[in-house]
């Protein structure tokens, strides 16, 4: 049994539980920094893709996981961030200025769009955001002089502190750029949850009526949450455009929005770790399926022709399995395993018993 004895109130709000947990995070960061030396270019590119998906997952986690507002339209904000970044770079703005500005533009647009959706809840908000994602496809095509329309745009190499960074020409530098953004966004997210604003997000998620009774401005909190979520998602979209190299209106389809929502549900709603676990599943599952088909074909002598819809079918089955058997996601399962070892032999299943009914205060809505 491993028990952490707290002797100071600051221990309850610091980013890590104890020195042991901090050392594990630092070790993980050191391994991630050294990845270009022990991975080839292919797997380094896949790891970079996972990190970009993790940033997008963190953006959606702010809105859905910690504020409780479902969204099926975050692909639209990925597109806004991607196009805003490239357009600014093409206009001669340095990348180190264009990148954060692209996120700010996306956040402002997201907060503006959130205003008419403030009174929507649950499935109605999801339908509203889904319609917005579908509409973005037409907007990109109609704004052809700016966005390139169906022909799309190409992402040029960008300058970072005097170094030219390109997805294909300098994969190591592009990976470190993505890793740096991941670290900064994660640290910002951790500190947001420790702040009064982050606690307001969680209060709104748990019960809007109770949060309002405690003095939380519901409309303001939802608007800020939507804006922050879209800002982080815009940064992920900017990196996604640089990673793809070429993109058009079909790159950020509504399927991406659905994958994002599936990702944070599978990873674990309401936890920063869940965004990373979900990104690993989304990023590596297609490659795993491809390798598995080749292996099965080599062993049994069958064909390795691609099966239409296989990838999304597997995603769907995984999602259904988690909803039925582990609603807390991968991180929730890991949390139970870790707690079992920490509290053995005093662990009880009822510690993680699901609440099967709504709060009484929510029935007043």
Question: Main traits of this protein?
Answer:
365 residues, mainly alpha, ABC transporter involved in vitamin B12 uptake, BtuC, two-stranded antiparallel ribbon, 3% strand
Give the gist of this structure.
By secondary structure, this protein is an all-alpha fold. It has 15 helices and 4 strands.
3D architecture notes:
The chain is mostly helical and 365 residues long. Helices cover 68% and strands 3% of the residues. It has helices spanning 19-33, 35-38, 41-65, 74-90, 95-114, 122-142, 144-147, 171-194, 196-206, 208-213, 218-244, 254-267, 272-300, 310-325, 329-343, and strands spanning 153-154, 158-160, 163-165, 246-247. The protein has a two-stranded antiparallel ribbon. It has a two-stranded antiparallel ribbon with strand order 2-3. β2 (158-160) and β3 (163-165) form a beta hairpin. The longest helix has 29 residues, at 272-300. The protein starts with 18 loop residues before the first helix and ends in a 22-residue tail after the last helix. The model is unreliable at 355-361 (pLDDT under 50).
